[in-house]
Amino acid sequence: MDNRSPDLPSKLTNLGIYLMNRYFRTGNLTDIEEAIVNFKQAVSLTDPNSPDLARHLNNIGNDLSNRYSQTGNLKDLEEAIDNYKHAVSFIDSNSLYLPGVLDNLGNSLSDLYSSTGNLKDLEEAIDNYKQAVYFTDPNSLDLPSRLNNLSNRLRDRYSRLGDVKDLEEVIDNYQHAIFLTDPNSLDLPIYLNNFGNSLSYRYFRTGDLKDLEESITSYQHAISLTDPNSPDLPCRLSNLGNGLSNRYFRTDDMKDLEDAIHNYQKAVSLTDLNSSDLPGLLSNFGLGLNNRYSHTGYLKNLNKAIANFKEAISLTDSKSPGLPSRLSSLGDGLSNRYFRTGNLKDLEEAIHNYQKAVLLTDRSSPALPGRLSNLGLGLNNRYSHTGYLKNLDEAIANFKEAISLTDSKSPGLPSRLSNLGNSLRCRHFLTGDLKDIEEAIHNYQKAVFLTDPNSPDLPGRLSNLDIGLNEKYSHTDDLKDLKENHS
Question: Is a pLDDT exceeding 60 seen at residue 451?
Fold first, then answer.
């Protein structure tokens, strides 16, 4: 080809596009390599003032991103980001081409964040997605996908930092994406599933049953629109299982739990053994079996749950954001087996997993209070077995930290207050320190106040309060404590 021909850059670009299309059909990495060479040559031959330059740079970014997806070579991803940024710098703010390049840049920054965990990359991805949405025509068919991309990363930031403003923006954006999407679009199940996830996050934050019900409906709708052979079906079935499990905890309806386990089991059976989704699906299946053990007492379910948790962890990358929750779940299963068998080895292993889960959890994560509380329970149980006061002191410290980080409207707060009360009462019994029993009573009172009058947990919490007041009366002979007991 004549290097002086003004048509050469466009011919090279067309050849690159042809090679990329062939790559998507065949998966042959050589096609990507050749496409990148052609796109780079097109850039070198394009006038810096040409409006085509940004397109060529964007094409290079796309190909490098695709090669990164195949090879995992971080250098490709970083080079892709540089090319996208270079492309953005050449595009007029009024150009219809700008939002797509910004969205591509956001995607590559998101991949970089997934690889490095660097919050700066996540923030930059969110900024670019926001710009992409801002510059997208309100009637554009691309707007729903860009709202979805933005919401996915805002959800990641919420999981990392716990800012409720991010969560509310996530929910609004998913709703808007669903509203704008054609009912027959293949993207609709994606948005419905993501919307269900965001409502589940808010349910855990506020305990509002309406959010839980709406999330279950959204998951069911997503599944009904998903092709039975779709690789996305297992994760959607598992998410529905999570929603049903959460409702089981609120209503104690065994049908919800059995339906949840059925969905978990189906999700695992449909998943390839080499799939990166398998660890999370195995862990969720383990949770369902662990819950069924708690309801029925069949040890077979508990042993199978623990086996699922261990397999899930063995398949999870050490840097995966899913690892802490899987470690915590294994800790729960081992703790349950310790209570059943009295085997101290299970309790020690449970505590070890709880400690690792806490250590790997970001200090701002909304999941941290629950993991600290689990660690507190494990240490409290070890104190009960060994009598070492140090374990009890550590348990109390973990419970206090968990409560200090728990939202005042969280459905998990009453149980954490009650657990702290139990440990303080236990330490009072050991040391005779009246301050501990007074603090225990204060926590019991708050737990009772925050417990729904129809909750099956209320009688136990009232009983704890009665015991605490009686213990205080036995030390003080103050009739006020007895009167409070019977009020």
Answer: yes
Q: Could you tell me the maximum CA-CA distance found in the chain, to the nearest angstrom?
A: 103
pLDDT above 80 (res 473)? no
Domain count, the chain: 1
- Note whether residue 426 is domain-resident: no
The answer to whether residue 120 is domain-embedded is yes
Q: What is the DSSP letter of 155?
A: H
- Whether 36 is covered by a domain: the verdict is yes
Average pLDDT, integer, range 118-126: 95
CATH value at residue 17: 1.25.40.10
pLDDT tens digits for range 257-316: 999 999 999 999 999 999 999 999 999 999 999 999 999 999 999 999 999 999 999 999
> What number of CA atoms fall less than 13 Å from residue 217's CA on the CB side?
7
- Residue 120's domain comprises 1-136
pLDDT in tens, 343-382: 999 999 999 999 999 999 988 888 999 999 999 999 999 9
